[in-house]
TrEMBL record:
Domain of life: Bacteria
A Pfam cross-reference name: F5_F8_type_C
PROSITE patterns in UniProt: CYTC, FA58C_3, PROKAR_LIPOPROTEIN
Organism of derivation: Algoriphagus ratkowskyi
Protein name: C-type cytochrome
Length: 897
């Protein structure tokens, strides 16, 4: 008699099966090769033709062997296990694989230990990158409900995405994410508990980037200092109860990967460069060049795959056809778990998917500077190697269970379509091994060590109180500490302040003390006396963290800390002295240039000499550039606006545009840094200065009152608004005195100050592009590999442009699903491809048109306004003169009242 029994599969699907004599296969025994065309397995194998015009003597091609060879064939996850070469004692276990996930590129765990998987389902689905920007990627969420190490429950949390850049858990049932060629980060929330996001809110703007999908922003990451960093962006953002603020930083030089170590040092992972970046000092202090920071031999990978199938070609090929120089990297993690050997803890790891290796990085600190080496260099080995050509490690993460997870895209092509075009060396090699149709797979592996069991405590942080979360700050696993700190800050629960202070003062756990310090900073509850006490702590790391955290207090007015910076620059620890020097520099304390010069004379440590010298060089260049950053008329407005702001506005809004604290974490007036109101339509700030503003702002009360400043002339108002839109990390358009005069005239009859809701009701609002808009154009060019002729790209960073040079009569049209009171458009045409002359027409039905504005295009941002027209569904922009250049538009914005 046969009985049925329920089998729980590892990827979260429950099936009823019937027992039989045939053994049941694990899902990891099912090979993706089963779906391939069987003809690819048959000899004779296809011959490869060398592209016409190829210089066979060039270093890239010289010595290449294009003989017919058997195709590369994908195998099951369990079969792939046989291909790995691990260091003694380590073991990999598959925990997810295709078809449940496809093209996994990154993972993140939320406060309840659920794993979010970023699935880039359009990445290189063929050799030409066709359909790369189709809206079919997703973010799935996986859960181990009975804590047996098997992910048995899944849901598609967010679907139909255009090549999403990252996933950031941000509180219960909430994530942050951004799509390719976009500028906005959105917060997505599941409000009804069904596991799928149903609410979308704007979180922050100004973090996007256009172009090749490999060269756009990735891995937005909340770090120990309570700021969020991403690749490519030379600024950081921070959530506060009053909104998201931002500050300028150095250039991260990263491409795919952001992580931090136990002491909050952020590491960025380069792409084509194949190496880590940004690890010397926190990025907020800028970039520093350190000679020899990559020790001899670091760039040599030890790959066991010998196909010579990498973009540099034969010039970077060893005699055995393996890679001789790191050329691609993706995903990174400083392992901060507690269930792998101690020698791995706080060590940096990243994937080199071209070499099919996972590299461990050993850091040697000398006189305050970091030097990197492969710890397995002498053995000519790596932390993890594979003989399977399809092993593509693209991300890794410290897991809640204390182990390390590795994301493997498991695919044939890893380079984007720009590097696989007709005639390229790489395309030839891909076709030789028939790897172009091996896509749609992906595995996630758990790395364990013999004798060390994974932690089976199931995280339940979303159900815990702030007081219960405090205990996790002492957890030996850095993931638990990070999540607890973030959630306490998001809760803004100051009832735990005393408990945090007690943890700092009494604990012998250095890392717990550091997290408690930064949690207080994030709650705006850090006291200057507490910081000064920690600056005298016996631990150099505590002194360093106290210096960094004190910067927030200084920015909010605690100028007396200057003396502490001067004192700690003389600290016996070179690393502490360096941090004091960097803090003094970034805060621009009085006579800081002379202080740096004196320090260089008195301290010969290599780190002091390297950093101090480069800081002085940077300050000299900044002085030279200050006068050329803006056009002359803009510089005049900026300079005058800064003088006015420093004299009057900073009292309430803070010297750094962060607001002035009045106790209990409250602000006297709103922050300007990163403010969506300040950075939105300039009419908001101008009307506020002209007539004043009272009442709650977006539901939040401030003690200060914004009085009317209309007694000042138009240039005064324009200067202040232009300044606050272009300092404190902001970058916006300037406001002209003429614009102020126009608004002054239009609001002359206004009596009394504005109420916030009244003012917002008057301001033109940007209307975001929706799926039900119909965007058409008389001419649209195909832009780049994998693109489609889609005029709606005008609303993104990717942009739209005409197929040929502009001609009178060319048009771009928007059809809205509902009538709007349209009043303004704005678009960026770059340096050359702006419309020579154009006109704007509106229509209710798309047949009868009314011209409402006309103008001449300019390089960069183009803005044109008209008196708001009601009952409008159609807008058409039409070129009214021929031109030699194409007509292009990106970051298009449509405003309505």
């Amino acid at each position: 008699m046969r009985i049925s029994k329920k089998l729980k599969l590892v990827y979260g699907v429950s099936l009823v099966i019937f027992a039989s004599c045939t053994p049941q296969k694990s899902p990891f025994d099912v090979s993706p090769a089963d779906s391939l065309d069987p003809k690819r397995m048959e000899a004779p194998y296809p011959s490869i033709t060398i592209p016409d015009g190829t210089d066979m003597e060039s270093p890239r091609w010289k010595g290449i062997d294009l003989s017919p060879v058997p195709p590369v064939v994908p195998v099951s996850a369990n079969e792939q296990l046989k291909s790995f070469i691990l260091q003694p004692g380590y073991k990999l276990t598959p925990i997810l694989s295709e078809p449940q996930i496809k093209e996994p590129a990154a993972i993140q765990f939320d406060g309840n230990g659920r794993m979010y998987v970023l699935e880039l389902r359009t990445y290189m689905q063929d050799i030409d990158a066709n359909g790369e920007l189709m809206p079919t990627s997703r973010i799935s969420r996986w859960e181990d409900t009975d804590n047996d190490g098997v992910y048995d429950k899944s849901v598609i949390f967010l679907d139909s995405l255009v090549f999403p850049r990252y996933v950031v858990p941000f509180g219960k049932n909430t994530i942050l994410s951004m799509e390719s060629n976009e500028d906005n980060v959105y917060k997505y929330t599941d409000t009804d508990g069904d596991g799928k996001a149903d609410k979308k809110e704007l979180f922050a703007s100004g973090l996007g980037r256009s172009g090749n999908v490999e060269h756009q922003t990735s891995f937005l990451t909340w770090t120990m200092d309570n700021w969020m960093y991403s690749t490519y962006n030379s600024h950081r953002i921070r959530w506060t109860p009053d909104g998201v603020i931002q500050e300028p930083t150095g250039n991260p030089w990263g491409q795919w990967g952001v992580t931090q170590d136990n002491y909050g040092q952020v590491w960025f992972q380069d792409g084509a460069g194949g190496i880590p970046q940004g690890y010397q000092f926190p990025l907020v202090y800028g970039n520093f060049s350190v000679k020899g920071q990559l020790k001899e031999g670091f760039r040599e990978p030890f790959s066991l795959v010998k196909l010579a199938d990498f973009e540099p070609g034969m010039r970077e090929t060893k005699p055995d056809n393996s890679l001789n120089n790191v050329t691609g990297s993706a995903g990174n993690d400083v392992f901060r778990g507690d269930r792998l050997p101690k020698e791995l803890q706080n060590q940096y790891f990243y994937g080199e998917p071209v070499g099919r290796i996972v590299r461990q990085v050993q850091v040697e600190k000398t006189e305050g500077l970091s030097y990197l080496q492969n710890p397995y260099l002498e053995q000519k080995s790596e932390f993890i190697q594979s003989t399977d050509p399809l092993f593509r490690p693209v991300d890794m993460a410290t897991a809640p269970d204390g182990t390390m997870y590795i994301v493997d895209m498991y695919r044939g092509i890893i380079q984007q379509g720009n590097w696989t075009q007709e005639g390229s060396y790489l395309r030839t090699k891909i076709l030789q091994y028939q790897m172009d149709d091996i896509a749609g797979n992906g595995r996630i592996w758990r790395l364990t060590y013999e004798g060390m069991e994974r932690n089976t405590e199931k995280p339940r942080m979303y159900e815990e109180t702030s007081a219960e979360l405090v205990r996790h700050l002492s957890n030996p696993n850095g993931w638990w500490r990070d999540q607890a700190q973030q959630l306490i800050i998001l809760n803004q629960d100051k009832s735990v302040v005393k408990e945090l202070e007690n943890l700092i003062n009494t604990s012998d756990n250095e890392l717990a003390r550091i997290h408690a310090l930064w949690t207080l900073e994030g709650l705006s509850s850090l006291k200057v006396d507490q910081v000064r006490k920690l600056m005298k702590d016996g631990s150099p790391q505590i002194r360093i963290q106290a210096l960094r955290a004190s910067e927030s207090l200084y920015k909010y007015g605690e100028k007396s800390l200057e003396e502490n910076y001067r004192e700690l620059i003389k600290d016996s620890s070179t690393e502490v002295a360096l941090q004091a020097l960097l803090s003094a520099y970034i805060l621009n304390i009085d006579q800081v240039e002379n202080l740096i010069k004196a320090t260089l004379k008195g301290n010969q440590a290599q780190g002091i000499q390297v950093v101090g010298t480069q800081l002085l060089e940077r300050m000299s260049k900044e002085k030279e550039m200050a006068s050329t950053k803006f056009a002359p008329q803009e510089l005049a407005l900026f300079t005058k606006g800064k003088s006015i702001y420093d004299s009057y506005c900073s009292t309430c809004h803070g010297p750094n545009g962060l607001g002035t604290p009045i106790g209990g974490g409250e602000l006297l007036a709103p922050a300007f840094s990163g403010s969506p109101r300040v950075m939105g339509h300039p009419e908001y700030a101008v009307k506020t200065l002209l007539h004043g503003l009272t009442g709650a702002i977006e539901g939040k009360e401030y003690e200060g009152i914004m009085i009317a400043m209309d007694s000042n002339d138009d240039e005064y108002i324009a200067s202040v608004v232009s300044y606050i839109r272009n300092d404190f990390g902001n970058s916006g358009s300037f406001v002209s005195p003429k614009f102020v005069a126009q608004l002054r005239k239009e609001t002359a009859s206004k009596e009394g100050t504005y109420d916030f809701d009244e003012l917002i009701g008057e301001i033109p609002k940007a209307i975001s592009l929706q799926d039900n808009w119909k965007i058409t154009a008389s001419s649209t060019a195909l832009q780049g590999v994998g693109s489609t002729k889609d005029p709606s790209y005008a609303f993104s960073f990717k942009g739209w442009k005409t197929e040929s040079p502009q001609e009178s009569g060319m048009w771009f049209q928007i059809e809205l699903p509902k009538e709007k009171n349209l009043a303004e458009i704005q678009f960026n045409s770059g340096e050359k491809e702006y419309p020579k002359k154009y006109k704007v027409s509106l229509s209710a039905d798309g047949k009868s048109w009314t011209e409402v504005a006309s103008g001449s295009g300019v390089k960069g941002i183009n803005t044109i306004q008209w008196k708001a027209q009601e009952n409008t569904r159609f807008l058409k922009i039409e070129a009214s003169e021929n031109g030699e250049e194409h007509w292009a538009m990106k970051q298009f914005m449509l405003f309505a009242r």
